[in-house]
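so ive been stuck on this for like two days lol. basically i have the seq below and the ligand is nicotinamide-adenine-dinucleotide, smiles is in there too. i just want the complex predicted, nothing fancy, no docking runs or whatever. if the output looks off dont worry ill sanity check it later, just need somthing to start from for the group meeting slides
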Amino acid sequence: MKIGFIGLGLIGGSIARAVRYFYPDTEIIAHSRTRASVEQAVADGVINRVIDQIDEDFSDCTYIFLCAPVSSNAKYLEQLKPLIGPDCIITDVGSTKTDIHEKVTDLDMEANFIGGHPMAGSEKTGYANSKRILIENAYYMITPTEKTPREAVETYRDFVASLKALPLVIDYHTHDYVTAGISHLPHIIASSLVNLVKDEDTKDGIMKLVAAGGFKDITRIASSSPEMWEQICMTNRKNISRILTDYIASLEKIKDQLDEAKSGAIYHLFETSRDYRNSLPVKGNGPLARIYEIYCDMVDEAGGIATLATILASNQISLKNIGIVHSREFIEAVLRIEFYDEESMKSAIEILRKHRYVIYER
Ligand SMILES: NC(=O)c1ccc[n+]([C@@H]2O[C@H](COP(=O)([O-])OP(=O)(O)OC[C@H]3O[C@@H](n4cnc5c(N)ncnc54)[C@H](O)[C@@H]3O)[C@@H](O)[C@H]2O)c1
Ligand SMILES: O=C(O)C(=O)C[C@]1(C(=O)O)C=C[C@@H](O)C=C1
C-alpha cells in the first residue's frame, strides 16, 4: 500500500504514525508547507519521502490524506484530479465537510472522495506534537459522497478501524450541524471568554494572576491555531451562526434570572448541566479516555508511598504509574496513581478508602 499526505502537522503526523505502526511496510509520502517537519518525519522513519510539489508521485496512492487547514485542503483537489488513478481515494481530516464536498462535486471527483474527521486533537499544532495514539479510541466521522463505491467506503471504514479509531459513517450536512454545537461554538466561547477577561481585568492583572482550574479547564482550547479556526468558522458560518443565536438567547435568559434573583432557575441550570455532562459516554474520547487514575492525599510519614503500594500489591492490584504531583488544583501535594484498567482502579479506591486514605476521582 502507498499513502500520500498533504499537510503533516498534528493530525496528519498522528495518522501517519499510526499507519507506520499498524502497516510497517506501507510506502508513505508527504508534501507539507513546513519543510522541517516532513524532513523530521523521514528521520523518524514515519514517512519514506518528502514530495516538494504535487506530481505523479501521488498517482499510485491507495489513499491521499489532505491534512492542511480546511480551505487549503479544498484547493489541492484541482491539482490532484488529473493525477490520481481510478481506484485512488482522496480523504481529508478537516473539521468542516460541506465546503470540501461542494468542491468535490463541482470538480466531478465524487467517486474518488470520502470525507473524514477524527474527533480527537489538541490546542497544540505541528508534527512535533503528533502522537500515534491520538486517534485511538476516538470517533472518526466518515462522510462518503453519493457516488463513492460502497466497497470503497467499507474498505476505508475497516482501514480507520484498523488504526484503532471508531469509524462513524454520517452525511456531511449532519456532520457540520453536529460539530457546530460540540466543537465550533465551544471554541468561540472559550476564545471570547479569554478576551473578555483580558479586557475586564484589573489594572494590575489580578484576574490573570489568580485564574485557576475553572477558567483554565474551560479555556484550554482558546490557545488553538487562529489560522485553522478562521478557516473552520468561515466554512461553517450558517450552522455556527444558528447555534450562536440560541446560545446568546440562553445567556440572556440566565442574565434575566440573575437580575430577578430566581435562585431556583439558577439551581436548575447547574443541576441540568451536571446531569447531562455526567452522562457523556466515556468511550470515544480519544486516548485520554483510557487513563485510569486517581489522586490520593499524601501520608506525611517516611515510607508512605511504599505502604500504600504494598497494600495494593497484597490485593493483587498492579500499578501502571505512581508519583507525587504538585498541582494548583490541590492545596497540598498529592499522589497520582495510575492503573491498567477500570476494574483495578475501582478495587483500589474501595481498598484505600477502607484504609482511611482520602481519594479524589476524576
Ligand atoms: N487540531 C485539532 O484538534 C484537529 C482535530 C481534528 C481535525 N483537525 C483538522 O485537521 C487539519 C489539520 O489540523 P492540524 O491540527 O493538524 O494543524 P497543524 O497546524 O498542526 O498542521 C497543518 C499542517 O499543514 C501544513 N500546511 C498548512 N497550509 C498548507 C498548505 N497550503 N499546503 C500544504 N501544507 C500546508 C502545515 O505546515 C502543517 O504541517 C485541519 O483541517 C483541521 O480542521 C484538527
Ligand atoms: O481537544 C482539543 O483541543 C480539540 O479542540 C479537539 C477538537 C474538538 O474537540 O473540538 C477540535 C477540532 C476538531 O475538528 C476535532 C476535535
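The CA atoms of residues 136 and 319 lie 22 Å apart. The chain has three domains: 2-170, 175-278, 291-361.
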